[in-house]
Amino acid sequence: MNSTEKKGRRHPDWIRASLVRTGRGGDVRGALAGGGLHTVCEEARCPNRGECWDAGTATFLIMGAVCTRNCRYCSVRHGKPEPPDPDEPGRVARAAKKLGCRYVVVTSVTRDDLPDGGAEHFAAVVRELKNEITGVGVELLVPDFSGDEKAVLTVADACPDVFGHNIETVSRRFPEVRPQGSYRRSLSLLGFLSRERPGMVLKSGLMAGLGESRAEITEALGDLRATGVQIVTVGQYLQPSRESAPVDRYLRPEEFEEIREEAVAMGFASAVCGPLVRSSYHAEEASRAYNGSVADK
What are the pLDDT digits (tens) for 34-45? Predict the structure, then answer.
């Protein structure tokens, strides 16, 4: 099966972001700039940011734009960040309301410098969003909090609608790609929350093309399902800078569809897989698909 295209050209033909233009992108930029806010769309150089911004959506990046870790797949700056701004949760909520958001995704840099890894700040953002916007859906994409179970519960007890934590890559590639993280620690975090808060919707994601095999992708999906994860995303890794890890291969759309079918067969309620898929891409639709699958049971 010719399922991949090796590196050697910038991008294959199927790696093309949507060029939708509705004029709403300027509204998003204005709301973010006015609130002094960051988005992972910009900091991680997401290929879908034009499409999402024109749809009036953005993934808020809280606690600054400087990360205490230096993962090889990520373009977010590494260094010593400033203390979290206590006014930021309110600004996020007001910006989301101004944009008319009914579903908000919030993520952060990793803050190993904070005693709780920023857990209480995440919780404050969830509370502000739910206080400001009636009926809003809130999805979080959190770091591993260095395995601190108390921090995990602090976030969960704020009642986000979806609790996300990405493993990003397979077990064998973790030491090189995520040297300050741990594959088992990430799985343990998700498994702990599944046991302690069985009603919490759990989500995780993988990037393909970082030197893993198909068998390793299957193994990682199985590990995630065993922890209780219900929603999974798999997308193509795209090298964001010259200093980042190189792309090992480009998976064809047909292979992503095979991975999606494999994930569904494993029991994931929702699997979103494709070349341009990112963990927050079409997040509301994935959440709805999960809720629909549960209702059908």
Answer: 556 655 444 445
Query: What's at 195, amino acid-wise?
Result: R
Q: Which residue has the tokens 């999960």?
A: 290
φ, ψ for residue 232 (rounded to 5)? -135, 145
CA distance 223 to 139: 22
How would you classify the pairing of strands 59-62 and 38-39? antiparallel
> Lowest mean pLDDT: which of 1-15, 56-70, 184-198, 244-258?
1-15
pLDDT single digits (tens) 162-179: 999 999 999 999 999 999
Nearby residues of 228 by Cβ (< 8 Å), 6 or more positions away: 190, 191, 193, 194, 195, 198, 202
Domains of the chain by residue range: 19-295
| Rounded Cα gap, residues 140 and 163, in angstroms | 5
Q: The CATH number of 19-295 is which of 2.40.160.60, 3.10.450.50, 3.20.20.70, 2.70.70.10?
A: 3.20.20.70
Tell the residue number behind the tokens 């808060």, with chain if given.
Answer: 197
pTM: 0.86
Radius of gyration of the chain (CA): 18
